């Protein structure tokens, strides 16, 4: 798959209906798919996951050669992650995911294993800059 | 006052004799950029542009304007978003950008002496390189625009919460009058260092907010502030307009921040590349609160951060949603596009570099107590006309007053959009005025719209002062209540 998927598109289902968090998530995903290994990992998945950050809900539809972002929780979700921006920033800055979960600041619904391929998004310093490939 | 066409060559010849032929622009292509600004206001070509090379050239050019009865419009970067440098009666544009020296910086007395063409970036680079113990306040203007232009039009900066609007930073001015006389105000009137306007009669006020109609400022002594060792910029997300502005007011009263501003949600999305956001999810914050705080002492700095958070906690305890603090450096980690908010001066390219090229606003100062209802009303007006409800607010001088500024982007080449945005601005000005706000960098259309509200004694004095200092009426005609014959 890594050899086949050269380009993965990250797009909004409706560009006029994106939340602030959705915009930031789209940017993180665009950075993530610039990494061949992450791209390959995401390209293998075909399901939807929900991310609710500070009340702003986004559905990530992993669709092979594209990741489509929907405003709100849309369709059948394999898993959902709920948190707030303060926690998200703390984790992104190297804070413990587990500690945030134990403190009740991060909730997981559905099948948590379906969220694992998305966890690199929470470590943006390890992602390539956008435009890299 | 328009110059007859047959006298234009004479004007250009005389200007060239004063400034040198290479410094006088006469071709239409060269004049065109001086005919307009970002706004929807109509363009008008000047008869000539003279790029001033020294302060000594200003008096003879003004004398020439008086002699020939030709308007003289002082101009810098022409980015004031009020059409204030459009030569609505033609004449000479006095381009002062070439007077761009930082003449003095006094670390101990914390002031600098600058010429009118000095830019924000120039000040930043100069202080960083040579005077790291000092800092300046920066506006949201592009980095290559004039500092002094902003000061003379009472603009605002990222330190305005502590030190007021930018005219409050002026200690002394050197001004050339239309008579050719040079006058010095503040401590300079006594020939003393330019550390203060007090205890002198505030004659500097004759040149502040007069939009270049009374004299040409060629030099100014301006306050700079001490650079403090610790500083933090962070955001809070306010779920509701009302919560957010009560929070900003509470912080201003508590004297904890250098800057406390509120940006409505479309501005966040525009920063992230959405050109015309008019949709908001119910879960999204309505206002992004932007805070800057600093202290020299580390303990004081951390105590301030804790105190800010305690204020936020009080709001949360009352059931309000106020999320933060979100330190800017952490947000930049997630999304480097926020880096453009990380340091001053900043270029907000999403406002300037868009296909239509038009930028306009109704910018006002007024009571912070009326923010919530004023912002709500302006929001509705902007959405009704299909514009993103992009509103910037900022607490000024300890929160004694505040900024309320509604920003609209449009396509300058589309007459229908130009008309729509002009109508929107009229509606916004009416609304803001109704809540007690006064437009700053006041465009003429605003003066005409609210003329009957101006105190007659004020108008009489304004006209009397103008007649006294500029009896021929050559300086930037058509501003305030002055004729544009």
Give a verbal description of the structure.
The complex is a heterodimer of chains A (133) and B (485). Chain A is α/β, with parallel strands linked by helices and 133 residues long. Chain A has four helices and six strands. In chain A, strands 1-4-3-2-5-6 form a six-stranded mixed β-sheet. The longest helix of chain A is centred in the N-terminal third of the chain and has 13 residues, at 20-32. Chain A is globular and about 40 Å long. The two termini of chain A are 16 Å apart. Chain B is globular, with a radius of gyration of 23 Å. In chain B, 32% of the residues lie in helices and 22% in strands. In chain B, a hairpin with a 5-residue loop joins β8 (170-176) and β9 (182-184). The mean pLDDT of chain B is 95. An eight-stranded antiparallel β-sheet of chain B has the order 15-12-14-13-17-18-16-19. Chain B has a five-stranded antiparallel β-sheet with strand order 5-6-10-8-9, covered by helices on one side. By secondary structure, chain B is an alpha+beta fold. In chain B, α12 (371-384) runs antiparallel to α13. Chain B is built from 15 helices and 19 strands. Chain B has helices at 8-19, 28-31, 58-68, 120-130, 147-152, 160-163, 241-254, 265-271, 298-317, 328-334, 349-352, 371-384, 415-434, 444-449, 456-469, and strands at 24-25, 48-51, 72-75, 92-95, 102-106, 111-114, 134-135, 170-176, 182-184, 216-223, 225-226, 230-238, 259-264, 287-295, 322-327, 357-366, 390-396, 401-411, 438-439.
């Amino acid at each position: 798959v890594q050899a086949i998927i050269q380009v993965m598109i990250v797009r909004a289902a409706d560009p006029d209906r994106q939340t602030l968090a959705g915009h930031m998530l789209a940017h993180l995903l665009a950075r993530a798919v610039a990494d061949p290994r992450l791209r390959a990992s995401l390209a293998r998945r075909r399901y939807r996951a929900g991310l609710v950050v500070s009340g702003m809900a986004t559905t990530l539809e992993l669709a092979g050669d594209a990741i489509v972002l929907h405003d709100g929780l849309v369709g059948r979700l394999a898993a959902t992650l709920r948190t707030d921006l303060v926690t998200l920033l703390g984790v992104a800055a190297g804070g413990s995911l587990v500690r945030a979960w134990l403190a009740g600041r991060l909730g997981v619904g559905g099948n948590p294993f379906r969220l694992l391929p998305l966890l690199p998004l929470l470590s943006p310093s390890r992602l390539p800059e956008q435009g890299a490939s | 006052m328009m110059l007859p066409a047959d006298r234009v060559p004479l004007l250009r010849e005389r200007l060239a004799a004063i400034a040198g032929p290479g410094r006088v622009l006469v071709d239409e292509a060269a004049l065109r950029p001086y005919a307009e600004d970002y706004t929807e206001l109509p363009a008008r070509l000047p008869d000539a542009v003279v790029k001033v090379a020294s302060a000594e050239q200003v008096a003879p050019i003004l004398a020439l304007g008086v002699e020939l009865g030709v308007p003289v419009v002082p101009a810098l970067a022409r980015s004031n978003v009020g059409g204030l440098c459009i030569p609505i009666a033609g004449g000479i544009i006095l381009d002062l950008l070439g007077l761009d020296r930082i003449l003095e910086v006094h670390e101990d007395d914390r002031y600098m002496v600058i010429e009118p063409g000095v830019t924000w970036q120039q000040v930043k680079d100069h202080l960083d390189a040579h005077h790291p113990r000092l800092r300046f306040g920066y506006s949201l203007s592009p980095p290559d625009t004039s500092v002094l232009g902003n000061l003379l039009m009472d603009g605002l900066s990222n330190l305005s919460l502590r030190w007021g609007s930018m005219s409050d930073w002026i200690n002394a001015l050197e001004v050339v009058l239309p008579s050719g006389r040079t006058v010095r105000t503040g401590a300079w009137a006594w020939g003393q260092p330019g550390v203060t306007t007090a205890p002198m009669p505030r004659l500097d006020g004759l040149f502040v907010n007069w939009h270049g109609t009374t004299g040409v400022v060629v030099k100014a002594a301006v306050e700079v502030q001490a650079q403090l060792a610790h500083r933090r910029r962070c955001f809070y997300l306010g779920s509701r307009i009302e919560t957010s502005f009560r929070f900003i007011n509470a912080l201003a009263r508590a004297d904890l921040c250098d800057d406390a501003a509120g940006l409505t949600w479309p501005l966040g999305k525009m920063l992230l590349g959405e050109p015309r956001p008019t949709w908001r999810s119910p879960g999204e914050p309505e206002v992004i609160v932007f805070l800057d705080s600093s202290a020299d002492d580390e303990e004081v700095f951390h105590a301030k951060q804790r105190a800010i958070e305690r204020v936020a906690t009080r709001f949360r305890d009352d059931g309000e949603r106020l999320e933060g603090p979100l330190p800017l450096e952490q947000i930049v980690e997630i999304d480097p596009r926020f880096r453009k908010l990380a340091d001053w001066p900043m270029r907000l390219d999403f406002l300037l570099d868009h296909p239509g090229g038009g930028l306009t606003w109704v910018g006002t100062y007024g009571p912070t107590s009326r923010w919530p209802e004023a912002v709500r009303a302006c929001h509705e007006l902007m959405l009704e006309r299909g514009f993103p409800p992009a509103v910037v607010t900022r607490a000024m001088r300890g929160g004694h007053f505040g900024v309320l500024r509604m920003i609209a982007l449009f396509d300058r080449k589309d007459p229908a959009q130009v008309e729509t945005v002009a109508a929107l601005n009229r509606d916004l000005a009416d609304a803001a005025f109704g809540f007690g706000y006064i437009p700053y960098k006041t465009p003429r259309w605003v003066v005409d719209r609210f003329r009957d509200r101006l105190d007659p004694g004020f108008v009489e004095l304004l006209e009397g002062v103008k007649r006294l200092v500029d009896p021929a009426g050559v300086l930037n005609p058509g501003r305030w209540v002055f004729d544009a014959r």
